[in-house]
Amino acid sequence: MNRDIIYFDNAATSWPKPEATILAVEECMRDKGGSPGRSGHSMSIDAGRAIFNAREALAGLLGIADPLRIVLTKNATEAINIAVFGFLKPGDHVITSSMEHNSVMRPLRAMESSGVELTILPCSAAGELDPGVVVPAINKNTKAIFLTHASNVTGTIIPVADIGRIAREHGLVFCVDAAQTAGALPIDIGSMDIDLLAFTGHKSLFGPQGTGGLYIREDLEHVISPLMRGGTGSRSEYEEQPDFMPDKFESGTPNTSGYAGLTAGIDFILSQGLDTINVHEKSLTELFLQGIGAVDGVTVYGLKDASRRISVVSFNIRGIDPAKVALELDDRFGIMSRPGLHCAPSAHKTIGTFPAGTVRFSFSYFNTVEEINQAVDAVWSLANQK
Fold first, then answer.
1. Which of 254, 271, 288 corresponds to the end of one domain?
2. Is 343 known to be catalytic?
3. Quick check: pTM over 0.70?
């Protein structure tokens, strides 16, 4: 790219990646080009080790005791699809919220058309979910609760530990969409009572696109059907799909170089410290909220308290379509943002911005105070242009 840019679209995919991520992908493609688990030669073994290293790194970060409880997928969407289509059956009842991304909503709507009952818990105009509304929504046929950990529109953090406790008390399976939070917030599947955790590698985990995963609690795999079936490199003498973790859910050759990069991304997080990353991103968010909060004609959505949200901020400028604002930010100021509905129409209906949506800024550990100040000035210029 031949111009200076300010990249504020990290909720879509993080950029830049740590240099270690890029080098790990290159090194894997150059030196570990074999197919993992499909041969016995040294390159295949090295590739298999790269895959297992990714599982171990993810398990350590997410509080998962057994790395083999992690199914590697190409993104959080695939992981959620495994959970929804593999677990729910006609006649089941499932609970979700009005702040969900379409990666949750669309699979659940598809199952609703097949006989699954769906309850959507209303959230506040700031994207908050009161745990007190969960218990009254539970029916005798309720099977599971599917919730985002944090909204990709408002950044509002959902109290998943409180809701996980409710799910455990009522014998429900609790599935959390951590697409926006894995690598950004501390996650511990045990203390949060999480049974299924879907995550992606290319956002706050600083990995390449095409990586992600699904944690499945022990014994739960026996009541979940795989999304795909095929070659796994194991039990090749049988024409039936393996029934053990993680092979049951991992058919086809995996993205070995991508997972090598993901491991490097996680190592980068650990080297910097998750708390350090979190503090920096929250400080940028707070600075931006303070800055544009003083700009006449700008409406900011979500909570004003940066400690209760991730580094995602949606806003609108009075009288200017969000798409035009984003275009002007790019053309005039080199600021990369995302306008529109962010694949979350229900969330925008909840906060009152449907159908035009908002302009979304999403910050990363690599963003700076100077960039935030420049962005505030840019928004002020657009809001005050004649």
1. 271
2. yes
3. yes
